[in-house]
Amino acid sequence: MTHPVQDSGAAPAGGRGRGLLAALLAGGTSVLAFAPFGIFPLAVLSLAVLAGLAARQTRARAGFALGFAWGLGAFLAGVSWLYVALNRYGGMPMPLAALAILLFCAYLALFPAAVGALFVRFGRGGAWRRALLFAGLWMGSELLRGWLFTGFPWLAAGYSQTPPSPLAGFFPVLGVYGVGGLVAFLAALVALTRWRSARPAAEALAAILVLSGAGFGLGRIAWTSPVGEPLEVVLIQTNIEQSLKWRPELLSDWLESNARLVRENPADLVVLPETTLPLLADRLPDGYLEELAAPVAARGGDVVFGVFLRDARGAIYNAALSLGASPSQSYAKQHLVPFGEYSPPLFGWFYDLVDIPMSDQTRGAPDQPPLRLGAQRVAINICYEDLFGRELIRSLPEATLMLNLSNLAWYGDSFAQPQHLQIARVRAMETGRPMLRSTNTGMTALVQPDGRVAEVLPAFMQGVLSVSVQGYEGLTPYARWGDFAALLLGVLALAVAGRLRRDGHARRGI
After folding, report:
1. Where is the CN hydrolase domain (predicted)?
2. Are 379 and 388 in contact (CB under 8 A)?
3. Which residues does residue 69 pair with via DSSP β-bridges, in sequence order?
4. If one looks up domain 226-475 in CATH, what number appears?
5. Which helix (H) or strand (E) holds 234?
6. pTM metric for this prediction
7. Considering just the CA atoms, what is the radius of gyration of the chain in Å?
8. Which is more confident, 501 or 483?
9. Backbone phi and psi for residue 464, each to the nearest 5 degrees, phi listed first
10. Cys-Cys with 71: which of 33, 60, 87, 112 at CB 3.0–4.6 Å?
11. Which pLDDT does position 349 carry in this prediction?
């Protein structure tokens, strides 16, 4: 093991500035590891820069600053497309929208900042100990970011490791947070190993090869198995411009467009995207729902579409409704988007600055069963919900298929569409189920249980994706354990790091 020498004092101001700039640029570069670029080794290299810079510090506040700079670069580069929703479609003035995004990214940057501070505070010892410490802290920070204030786990490091990354085989076992911890461990090991010394270099290289080989081997395991007959599915991408969707004078055009697309493309299952009917179901024209379902029901199939439902109490739900040969069923979105679909306490003033339709919604029940459509059990998730793997596995083992309805038109032509598809790939691997996606502007796709995108429509065009999809049964380890496995792995990494530190003190007589 190596024992890097700690700096004896504070770095000169110029050195601090260069370090912060390097961390900022490394964070921004990390976005290239995710879709649409998919240069997955950059996730390791980017975090290696952060770990290497932090390892040279002696004060926790310096580590905090480096982690904050890294996080600010990563989130400004990776999720600044949120600005489009606030400014272009929400009507928020440009300076306020830019400030809101900066503050939001600064909040997200606090999580890697905490990692940097704690890593410096407790990061003494050899490369292996410090790599375990960095990995455990990173897993903990991402788990917390995915939970606190309802969670925002977008750009969790693990998402960058979809196939062909050799670490992709760990998704069905450890989930996205566990894979992110492996990325952080490798990053710190790369940064802190003395590569010019034969033994440390050989040990680090062996660890990289073992983890890569284990991931490759796990990826060859079929955790779930096909069940039933294949289903002929039509996924419709309506491509309705967000600025036009809510204009009352165009409502009849949108209703006719949806009905026509279903009429021209009947199948066993026809799917329209989230809120494809931009009004409450009880305000639809008389006979419209019967017209929508008739061509699919005539061939013994069902249509599933996004619409707003209202219950007897007047509560409004962002929902999916099924009609056709099977009994009519519905699913109400459980995990709502703060500020977009509901107002957190004390933030009512936010809606004085923006104009977001249907922004006072109610959460659906957490224990909604899959929809029984023919011989399949289809678990619905709506848009943002598929960021939360621990919530999607509630439908297992009953569900044989996963179906996501989305509308990312709010974010324009941005990284949001390919990044969201990459998230769906991870959910498919975690659950061992195909993930069907019907979206308004992209990316409409079929993702297989191994994370492979079987077919996908180009974004920002109206189109129809006809696929034959096989249902699956059985449980992956992640479906059994959820995020507990990643949490346990993180705690174990910290415990081993702590033990190695105590052993090192004992050997030195401390």
Report:
1. 236-471
2. no
3. none
4. 3.60.110.10
5. strand 225-237
6. 0.93
7. 24
8. 483
9. -130, 130
10. 112
11. 60
Q: How far is CA 283 from CA 13, 57, 98, 279, 308, in A?
A: 64, 62, 37, 7, 10
Structural tokens at position 149: 């204030």
CB 472 within 8 A of CB 432: yes
Q: How far is CA 91 from CA 248, 383, 441, 476, in A?
A: 18, 22, 20, 44
Strands 371-373 and 376-382 come out as: antiparallel
Place of tokens 């790369």: 190
Pair 276, 284: CB distance under 8 Å = no
What's the confidence (pLDDT) of residue 12?
64
The residue with greater pLDDT, 454 or 336, is 454
How far is the C-alpha of 104 from the C-alpha of 331, rounded, in Å?
30
Measured between alpha carbons, how far is 378 from 388 in angstroms, rounded to an integer? Answer: 17
C-alpha distance from residue 226 to each of 105, 446, 449 (Å): 42, 16, 10
> Among candidates 382, 256, 375, 275, which has minimal Cα distance to 331?
382
Q: Clarify whether 383 is annotated catalytic.
A: yes
Do the beta carbons of residue 311 and residue 280 sit within 8 Å?
A: no
Active-site position among 142, 274, 385, 430: 274
**What are the residues whose beta carbons fall under 8 Å from the beta carbon of 499, sequence distance 6 or more?**
none
Q: Which of 333, 341, 385, 430 is catalytic?
A: 333
Amino acid 6: pLDDT: 42
Kind of pairing between the strands at 269-271 and 277-280: unpaired
Q: What are phi and psi of 440, to 5 degrees?
A: -75, -50
Q: Which pair of tokens denotes residue 139?
A: 């897993």
CA 208 to CA 210: how far, in whole Å?
6
* CA 435/CA 38 separation, integer angstroms: 20
Instruction: List the one residue out of 373, 290, 391 whose CA is nearest residue 382.
Output: 391
> Is 274 considered catalytic here?
yes
Q: CATH 3.60.110.10: which residues of the chain?
A: 226-475
Catalytic residue among 245, 341, 383, 385: 383
The Cα–Cα gap between 80 and 77 comes to 6
Judge whether 287 and 358 are in contact, CB under 8 Å. no
Amino acid at 449: P
245 is catalytic: no
Q: What is the pLDDT of residues 374-405, one digit of tens each?
A: 999 999 999 999 999 999 999 999 999 999 99
Angstrom distances, CA of residue 299 to CA of 20, 207, 265, 293? 62, 56, 11, 11
Which is more confident, 407 or 9?
407
